[in-house]
Amino acid sequence: MRVDIWSDVVCPWCYLGKARFEKALADFPHRDEVEVTFRSFELDPDRPKNERETVLGMLTQKYGLSEADARQADGRVAELARAEGLGFQADRPLGNTFDIHRVIHLGLAKGVQRELITAVNEAYFAQAQEVFDPAVLTGVATDAGLDPNAVAEILDGDAYADSVREDEREARTLGITGVPFFVLDGTFGVSGAQQTEAFVSALNQAWTHHG
Predict the structure, then answer these.
(1) Which sign, positive or negative, has the C-alpha torsion 152, 147, 88, 114?
(2) In the CATH hierarchy, which fold is given to the domain comprising 2-210?
């Protein structure tokens, strides 16, 4: 059975949702017969490639929050993440994620996509690393099992750009406007960072349908 997960690497709810889904999958009796593929979705595709700001700065500008309210809003997600055993830093940078998604497609092709996303999440959310910087991203990807020369070649060109855009086209076709979004067995959609129990139920329902 196939599970497709649309997500963005700077999305805290995607980070949380991935952890909860993986806990559900770990206890799923048929987990060895489930193929999980992460699909590309940019929260802010129009962000200039070399533009940087902080997450808290974005929250104050985009939503008109005070810095205190922005910290409080981010802090609520942090509490949920830490309850799942995840690291979470407030002062994270924010940048364009298109190139990261291209490298994630390389990870898929090389069979280390999950390891790569886990490593990028750890570097970004738990350590507030500048994963938008090619050198930092290459280091993280190398630690996850990719060849550094292959990563550098991707970042120096435009390989997998069409794959990222195709994922995003499919998301629009499916009516996905926010992430994370999980599609189980091509039929059952689950939106958001649901509780682990909800993912357990969805996996069971999809498996029954899968037959």
Answers:
(1) positive
(2) Glutaredoxin (3.40.30)
